[in-house]
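Hey, quick one: can you model this chain's 3D structure?
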Amino acid sequence: MQGDTSSAPRPVEAPDDNARLMARLATDFVLRSLQLAAKQHDGDLIMAIVAAAIVSANTAHLNPIAGAPARHTDLDDVAPNEARRPVSVLAIAGSLGLPFETTRRYVNRLIASGQCRRVKGGVLANAEALSTPANNAVIVGNAANVRRLFRDLRRGGVTLD
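Sure thing. Here's the predicted structure for all 161 residues.
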């Protein structure tokens, strides 16, 4: 039917005048972070993303919530294996939008390399693998990326609240 715009994309209101700047800077941040992570996994970006998703799922409950402080935040204070919560391969696949079999193969490679282990309820990233100099370098590099993102946002006139 001519003139029917019900399925046409609706314009999105920008949160403020700096929306394009924020998008550019956020994209730069993500790309720099992915480069660091992929380098740690021999250039395998999907492996890096699966590994990051496992670590994130294992430790999400340690992040600050409703006035409670974050735990295990210092570079030398890796959350012990007992403090981590397992995540299923199915949950990782779903969170990343990857096929289950693809995710399972990547998880199996992470287990074979000692970066993760299978436990009741799913998979855990090994605290020992997360406290290596190579992993610490990625964390320090990402911390620098976050500082750069916030600095560039402030320079661009973006109000951070």
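One thing worth noting: The chain has one domain: 33-61+72-155.
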